[in-house]
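How it folds
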Amino acid sequence: MKSKGLFLLLLIAVMTITFYTSQTDNSPATDDNDFPVSAGTQPGDHHEADENETSEVMGSQEVKAEVGFQAPSFFLEHLHTGEEYSLDSTDKPVLINFWASWCGPCKLEAPDMVKVYEEYGEHIDIYAINLTDVDDIPQVESFVEEYGFTFPVLLDEEGKVADQYNVMAIPTTFVVNSEGEVTAKHQGYATMDDLIHIVSEVVEES
């Protein structure tokens, strides 16, 4: 009797194992690297969605120092004349360049900035905004004279405009079109090719 009982238990165990094994083998295989795609959404649609979102941002009138937004307004005095400048002081696009006299990359960039103004000055203005709160006026004047700046040099004496434009490093350059919208932002040293690229784009659109 005991042997029959053991046989039945072994038989039941074998049948149970066989059943669960067959269920596991029939279940769909999964891969941790699979990307679940919901109905109506294909992987190729993600770029289209991003483009639509970008176009909505580009049309926004929100003020922010980023491409596609309205540029923050400001009023700053000219280094030599004391005249007050703003984005409304001109009907041209404006290249805004944040700099300081002690900044090495600013010194490298300065000659190219002068060349760009000589070439495109009829179509775009350049506002060289000096971070005067961390600079020295005599040094600023020497810098301007040495590199032959003929465009407006404006003094950010309290650093408020740099804060408005979220300037984290210098030089930092923005281009604002005649509608007041930021069309380009370049953080750090900009080569001549960089400057011509961002300027020519806004000039062509004007």
Q: What stands out?
A: The longest strand covers residues 94-99.
